[in-house]
Protein backbone atom coordinates (compact mmCIF):
# COMPACT_ATOMS: atom_id res chain seq x y z
CA UNK A 1 0.00 0.00 0.00
CA UNK A 2 1.46 3.35 -1.10
CA UNK A 3 0.16 6.36 0.82
CA UNK A 4 0.88 9.56 -1.07
CA UNK A 5 -1.78 11.99 -2.19
CA UNK A 6 1.05 14.08 -3.52
CA UNK A 7 2.87 14.20 -0.19
CA UNK A 8 1.75 12.77 3.14
CA UNK A 9 3.34 15.76 4.87
CA UNK A 10 0.46 17.86 3.54
CA UNK A 11 -1.96 15.94 5.78
CA UNK A 12 -2.33 16.99 9.44
CA UNK A 13 -0.54 14.34 11.46
CA UNK A 14 -3.53 13.32 13.57
CA UNK A 15 -5.51 12.63 10.39
CA UNK A 16 -2.66 10.69 8.80
CA UNK A 17 -2.03 8.64 11.94
CA UNK A 18 -5.72 7.76 12.20
CA UNK A 19 -5.74 6.63 8.57
CA UNK A 20 -2.57 4.54 8.99
CA UNK A 21 -3.95 2.84 12.09
CA UNK A 22 -7.07 1.89 10.13
CA UNK A 23 -4.89 0.48 7.36
CA UNK A 24 -2.96 -1.55 9.92
CA UNK A 25 -6.25 -3.09 10.99
CA UNK A 26 -6.66 -4.72 7.56
CA UNK A 27 -5.26 -8.22 7.85
CA UNK A 28 -4.18 -8.61 4.22
CA UNK A 29 -1.85 -5.57 4.18
CA UNK A 30 1.83 -6.43 4.58
CA UNK A 31 3.62 -3.29 3.40
CA UNK A 32 2.89 0.41 3.82
CA UNK A 33 5.02 3.03 2.07
CA UNK A 34 4.71 6.70 2.94
CA UNK A 35 5.61 8.92 -0.03
CA UNK A 36 7.06 12.28 0.97
CA UNK A 37 9.43 14.68 -0.69
CA UNK A 38 9.14 16.84 2.43
CA UNK A 39 11.72 14.64 4.14
CA UNK A 40 14.20 16.46 1.90
CA UNK A 41 12.36 19.69 1.13
CA UNK A 42 11.06 20.32 4.66
CA UNK A 43 12.81 17.93 7.08
CA UNK A 44 11.66 20.08 10.01
CA UNK A 45 8.20 18.62 9.54
CA UNK A 46 9.44 15.11 10.29
CA UNK A 47 11.31 16.35 13.36
CA UNK A 48 8.31 17.90 15.08
CA UNK A 49 7.65 16.14 18.42
CA UNK A 50 4.03 15.43 17.47
CA UNK A 51 5.09 13.75 14.23
CA UNK A 52 8.01 11.82 15.76
CA UNK A 53 5.89 10.49 18.62
CA UNK A 54 3.03 9.60 16.30
CA UNK A 55 5.34 7.90 13.83
CA UNK A 56 6.72 5.80 16.66
CA UNK A 57 3.20 4.70 17.63
CA UNK A 58 2.46 3.72 14.04
CA UNK A 59 5.80 1.91 13.67
CA UNK A 60 5.26 -0.09 16.86
CA UNK A 61 1.78 -1.09 15.77
CA UNK A 62 3.10 -2.08 12.32
CA UNK A 63 5.86 -4.21 13.87
CA UNK A 64 3.42 -5.89 16.21
CA UNK A 65 1.14 -6.80 13.30
CA UNK A 66 3.93 -7.91 10.97
CA UNK A 67 3.61 -4.98 8.54
CA UNK A 68 6.69 -3.41 6.92
CA UNK A 69 6.53 0.37 7.29
CA UNK A 70 8.79 2.41 5.02
CA UNK A 71 9.22 6.02 3.91
CA UNK A 72 9.95 6.78 0.26
CA UNK A 73 11.48 10.15 -0.49
CA UNK A 74 12.83 11.93 -3.56
CA UNK A 75 16.42 13.20 -3.80
CA UNK A 76 18.01 14.00 -7.16
CA UNK A 77 21.35 15.54 -6.19
CA UNK A 78 23.79 15.16 -3.34
CA UNK A 79 23.60 18.89 -2.58
CA UNK A 80 20.05 18.33 -1.33
CA UNK A 81 21.35 16.09 1.47
CA UNK A 82 21.79 18.48 4.37
CA UNK A 83 22.57 17.53 7.99
CA UNK A 84 18.92 18.22 8.83
CA UNK A 85 17.76 15.77 6.16
CA UNK A 86 20.08 13.11 7.60
CA UNK A 87 18.77 13.82 11.09
CA UNK A 88 15.16 13.47 9.95
CA UNK A 89 15.89 10.17 8.19
CA UNK A 90 17.81 8.75 11.15
CA UNK A 91 15.03 9.81 13.51
CA UNK A 92 12.47 7.90 11.45
CA UNK A 93 14.65 4.81 11.58
CA UNK A 94 15.24 5.17 15.31
CA UNK A 95 11.51 5.22 16.10
CA UNK A 96 10.92 2.01 14.20
CA UNK A 97 10.42 2.74 10.50
CA UNK A 98 11.93 -0.24 8.72
CA UNK A 99 13.44 1.59 5.74
CA UNK A 100 13.82 5.06 4.31
CA UNK A 101 14.27 4.71 0.54
CA UNK A 102 14.98 7.10 -2.27
CA UNK A 103 13.21 7.17 -5.61
CA UNK A 104 14.93 9.80 -7.71
CA UNK A 105 14.65 10.84 -11.34
CA UNK A 106 17.48 10.55 -13.83
CA UNK A 107 17.92 14.07 -15.20
CA UNK A 108 20.31 15.32 -17.83
CA UNK A 109 22.57 18.03 -16.41
CA UNK A 110 21.69 17.16 -12.82
CA UNK A 111 22.66 13.56 -12.07
CA UNK A 112 23.05 11.76 -15.40
CA UNK A 113 26.73 10.88 -14.95
CA UNK A 114 28.19 7.99 -13.02
CA UNK A 115 30.14 10.39 -10.76
CA UNK A 116 27.00 12.36 -9.84
CA UNK A 117 24.96 9.22 -9.23
CA UNK A 118 27.66 7.64 -7.08
CA UNK A 119 28.14 10.82 -5.04
CA UNK A 120 24.40 10.91 -4.40
CA UNK A 121 24.19 7.22 -3.52
CA UNK A 122 27.16 7.38 -1.15
CA UNK A 123 25.60 10.40 0.53
CA UNK A 124 22.21 8.71 0.81
CA UNK A 125 23.50 5.42 2.16
CA UNK A 126 26.51 6.53 4.13
CA UNK A 127 25.45 9.84 5.61
CA UNK A 128 21.66 9.86 5.76
CA UNK A 129 20.81 6.19 6.14
CA UNK A 130 18.55 6.40 3.08
CA UNK A 131 18.56 3.40 0.76
CA UNK A 132 19.12 4.22 -2.94
CA UNK A 133 16.23 2.41 -4.57
CA UNK A 134 15.11 3.59 -8.01
CA UNK A 135 16.08 6.26 -10.48
CA UNK A 136 13.26 6.74 -12.94
CA UNK A 137 13.84 8.01 -16.43
CA UNK A 138 11.82 11.14 -17.17
CA UNK A 139 8.21 10.57 -18.12
CA UNK A 140 7.24 11.25 -21.71
CA UNK A 141 5.45 14.49 -20.92
CA UNK A 142 5.53 17.84 -22.76
CA UNK A 143 8.30 20.33 -21.95
CA UNK A 144 10.52 17.76 -20.24
CA UNK A 145 12.56 16.74 -23.27
CA UNK A 146 15.65 18.59 -22.08
CA UNK A 147 15.80 16.40 -18.95
CA UNK A 148 15.49 13.07 -20.70
CA UNK A 149 18.32 10.60 -21.10
CA UNK A 150 18.39 8.02 -23.89
CA UNK A 151 17.84 4.38 -22.98
CA UNK A 152 21.34 3.41 -24.10
CA UNK A 153 22.79 6.08 -21.82
CA UNK A 154 20.73 4.78 -18.89
CA UNK A 155 22.01 1.29 -19.62
CA UNK A 156 25.59 2.54 -19.63
CA UNK A 157 25.06 4.40 -16.35
CA UNK A 158 23.66 1.27 -14.71
CA UNK A 159 26.77 -0.65 -15.73
CA UNK A 160 29.10 2.14 -14.64
CA UNK A 161 27.79 2.35 -11.07
CA UNK A 162 27.95 -1.39 -10.45
CA UNK A 163 30.58 -2.59 -8.00
CA UNK A 164 30.99 0.58 -5.95
CA UNK A 165 28.07 0.14 -3.55
CA UNK A 166 26.74 -2.88 -1.68
CA UNK A 167 24.37 -4.85 -3.88
CA UNK A 168 21.30 -3.92 -1.84
CA UNK A 169 22.27 -0.24 -2.06
CA UNK A 170 22.87 -0.16 -5.81
CA UNK A 171 19.84 1.57 -7.34
CA UNK A 172 18.01 0.35 -10.39
CA UNK A 173 17.39 2.70 -13.29
CA UNK A 174 13.86 2.13 -14.54
CA UNK A 175 11.59 3.48 -17.24
CA UNK A 176 7.86 3.91 -16.71
CA UNK A 177 6.49 3.01 -20.15
CA UNK A 178 3.04 4.51 -20.88
CA UNK A 179 0.25 1.93 -20.63
CA UNK A 180 2.76 -0.80 -19.84
CA UNK A 181 4.33 -0.06 -16.45
CA UNK A 182 7.86 -0.16 -15.10
CA UNK A 183 10.58 -1.79 -17.18
CA UNK A 184 14.24 -1.94 -16.31
CA UNK A 185 16.56 -1.00 -19.21
CA UNK A 186 19.61 -1.92 -17.18
CA UNK A 187 21.11 -4.37 -19.65
CA UNK A 188 20.84 -5.03 -23.37
CA UNK A 189 17.60 -6.92 -22.86
CA UNK A 190 14.45 -4.97 -22.01
CA UNK A 191 11.64 -7.28 -21.02
CA UNK A 192 8.14 -6.21 -21.95
CA UNK A 193 5.14 -8.32 -21.04
CA UNK A 194 2.22 -8.58 -23.43
CA UNK A 195 -0.87 -6.92 -22.06
CA UNK A 196 -4.32 -6.24 -23.58
CA UNK A 197 -4.58 -5.16 -27.21
CA UNK A 198 -4.80 -1.45 -26.43
CA UNK A 199 -1.27 -1.57 -24.97
CA UNK A 200 0.34 -3.18 -27.99
CA UNK A 201 0.82 0.07 -29.88
CA UNK A 202 2.35 1.73 -26.83
CA UNK A 203 5.07 -0.93 -26.65
CA UNK A 204 5.83 -0.74 -30.38
CA UNK A 205 5.93 3.07 -30.31
CA UNK A 206 8.31 3.05 -27.37
CA UNK A 207 10.67 0.52 -28.97
CA UNK A 208 10.73 2.37 -32.28
CA UNK A 209 11.63 5.59 -30.49
CA UNK A 210 14.45 3.95 -28.49
CA UNK A 211 16.81 2.07 -30.84
CA UNK A 212 19.14 1.42 -27.89
CA UNK A 213 16.94 -1.52 -26.91
CA UNK A 214 18.61 -4.48 -28.61
CA UNK A 215 16.68 -7.52 -27.43
CA UNK A 216 13.01 -7.87 -26.60
CA UNK A 217 11.45 -10.72 -24.66
CA UNK A 218 7.82 -11.27 -25.60
CA UNK A 219 6.12 -13.40 -23.00
CA UNK A 220 2.92 -12.49 -21.17
CA UNK A 221 3.24 -15.91 -19.56
CA UNK A 222 3.10 -17.73 -22.91
CA UNK A 223 2.83 -16.11 -26.34
CA UNK A 224 0.68 -19.05 -27.43
CA UNK A 225 -2.06 -17.62 -25.22
CA UNK A 226 -1.91 -14.18 -26.84
CA UNK A 227 -4.58 -13.25 -29.44
CA UNK A 228 -3.22 -13.44 -32.97
CA UNK A 229 -3.83 -9.72 -33.42
CA UNK A 230 -0.95 -9.08 -31.01
CA UNK A 231 1.53 -11.02 -33.10
CA UNK A 232 2.08 -11.47 -36.85
CA UNK A 233 -1.43 -10.55 -37.93
CA UNK A 234 -1.03 -7.03 -36.53
CA UNK A 235 2.36 -6.41 -38.08
CA UNK A 236 1.62 -7.76 -41.53
CA UNK A 237 4.60 -10.11 -41.31
CA UNK A 238 4.50 -13.86 -41.29
CA UNK A 239 5.74 -14.37 -37.77
CA UNK A 240 6.02 -11.87 -34.98
CA UNK A 241 5.32 -8.17 -35.02
CA UNK A 242 8.59 -7.38 -33.26
CA UNK A 243 12.02 -7.27 -34.81
CA UNK A 244 14.93 -7.67 -32.44
CA UNK A 245 18.53 -6.67 -33.00
CA UNK A 246 21.29 -8.30 -31.07
CA UNK A 247 24.23 -6.16 -30.15
CA UNK A 248 27.27 -6.46 -28.01
CA UNK A 249 27.05 -5.51 -24.36
CA UNK A 250 28.50 -2.11 -23.55
CA UNK A 251 32.02 -2.55 -22.27
CA UNK A 252 32.33 -2.19 -18.52
CA UNK A 253 34.76 0.39 -17.29
CA UNK A 254 37.47 -0.55 -14.88
CA UNK A 255 36.65 -0.05 -11.25
CA UNK A 256 38.21 2.78 -9.36
CA UNK A 257 41.39 1.80 -7.54
Task: Give an overview of the whole structure.
The protein is α/β, with parallel strands linked by helices and about 260 residues long. The chain has a domain at about 1-95. About 30% of the residues lie in helices and about 20% in strands. It has 8 helices and 9 strands. The longest helix is centred in the N-terminal third of the chain and has 16 residues, at about 50-65.
The biggest beta sheet reads: 7 strands, mixed
The end-to-end distance, rounded to whole angstroms, is 42 Å
What is the overall number of helices? Answer: 8
Shape: globular
**Going across the major beta sheet, what is the strand order?**
1-2-3-4-5-6-7
Question: How many strands in all?
Answer: 9
Taking pLDDT < 50 over at least 5 consecutive residues as the criterion, the unreliable ranges are 186-198, 233-254
- Given helix and strand content, the structural type is alpha/beta
Strand content: 15-25%
H and E order: EHEHHEHEHEHEEEHEH
Helicity range: 25-40%
Mean pLDDT: 80
Q: In angstroms, what is the radius of gyration?
A: 21 Å
Question: Descriptors for this entry?
Answer:
two-stranded parallel ribbon, alpha/beta, single chain, 257 residues, globular
Give a quick precis of the structure:
The chain has 257 residues and is α/β, with parallel strands linked by helices.
Q: In terms of topology, how is this protein built?
A:
Blueprint: E1 2-3, H1 13-24, E2 31-35, H2 38-41, H3 49-64, E3 68-73, H4 83-94, E4 99-106, H5 114-128, E5 131-137, H6 151-160, E6 172-177, E7 181-183, E8 189-192, H7 200-209, E9 215-218, H8 232-235
Parallel strand pairs: 1-2, 2-3, 3-4, 4-5, 5-6, 8-9
Antiparallel strand pairs: 6-7
Helix pairs in contact: 1-3
Amino acid sequence: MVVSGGDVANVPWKNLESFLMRLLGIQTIRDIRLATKALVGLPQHWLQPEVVEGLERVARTAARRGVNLAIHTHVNHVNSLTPLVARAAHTALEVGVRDVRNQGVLMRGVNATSADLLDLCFGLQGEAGILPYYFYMCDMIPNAEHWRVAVWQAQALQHDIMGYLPGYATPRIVCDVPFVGNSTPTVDKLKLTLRPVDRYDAMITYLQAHPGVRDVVVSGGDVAKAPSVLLGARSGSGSTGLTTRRGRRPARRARRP
